[in-house]
What we know:
The protein is of the alpha/beta class. It is built from 13 helices and 13 strands.
Amino acid sequence: xxxxxxxxxxxxxxAVFAAIVAACGKSGGSGSKVSVGIVLPTKDEPRWVQDxxxxxxxxxxxxxxxxxxxxxxxxxxxxxxxxxxxNKGIKVLIICPQDGDAAAAAVEAxxxxxxxxxxxxxxxxxxxxxxxxxxxxxxAVGAAQAQYLVDHAKGSGEPLYLYAGAASDNNAFLFFQGxxxxxxxxxxxxxxxxxxxxxxxxLKDKKDLSRDELSKIxxxxxxxxxxxxAKNKAQTHLTAAAADMKGDVAILAxxxxxxxxxxxxxxxxxxxxxxxxxxxxxxxxxxQYVIDGKQSMTVFxxxxxxxxxxxxMAVEILDGKSPATTGSYNNGKVDVxxxxxxxxxxxxxxxxxxxxxxxxxxADEFKGL
Length: 369
């Protein structure tokens, strides 16, 4: 009987200890307070999964806590995530919107609770509820892509295929604006001829486009940031293209995921002799494509710096300080204070230096480096 009592007591002690350990192991779990809430667009793109880990690393060891939620491409889920984080007592919300306009309602709910809002990488539009914007220089991204195409143009009359991001994403407009300002003079002088957009052809003599004019072109060549949509669009364009729209071609692809899909389509068309194609984000799969010569370049946006800037801002706010900024972006309603990070063009010539030697990725993650 005495032995049974000891056994039961030991089991109870172990159970209590296990419960305590489980509770301590939770970070921002149900019912616990969270300092910084982070909402990212989707787990289906490697870029955002990388950001998740870097956000966790950035706040590791500090006195503040964080919780990261994904919207999986749904503005409704995004709003639900923000409401969940508000209920957990967050003081700062870092959010990369799925749709810049649609996210306005979510951040306005946060602002009503006195929460500071940092728009991360993509600007939330048409609301005064955004306090700060941490971003890469988006216009410079498009300009870098376009400059690469210009620098690698072959003669004159080279077919130019244009693709863009999602029309619901303000960044897609900034990327395309930056690219168009570099490409337009080379379209006007005959270096390039537009292959897949009647709207772009109609505006080929105008360097500075209005938002409505950009919207017309983007609406025609959008990929919605979806590799499958990019693939289908590229197949449609090549099927419809006349013989003089093949040969050596230039392709403005908005990011790495769409670039790989578009490149795969163009590489299977025997009438396409060669192509130069842009990208953005330095995803691992695209770095391998660059090494293999299947994608010409990518624009490297060092997410480590962007995460560091966003978390630095959040900590300064939590410490009662005013974060330093380097400029502002008008979001359609107010000028949002912003901190910008520079971008780097990466191709086969400098991929090892910029991507591996800098410690962004490890050499053993690639073949043929």
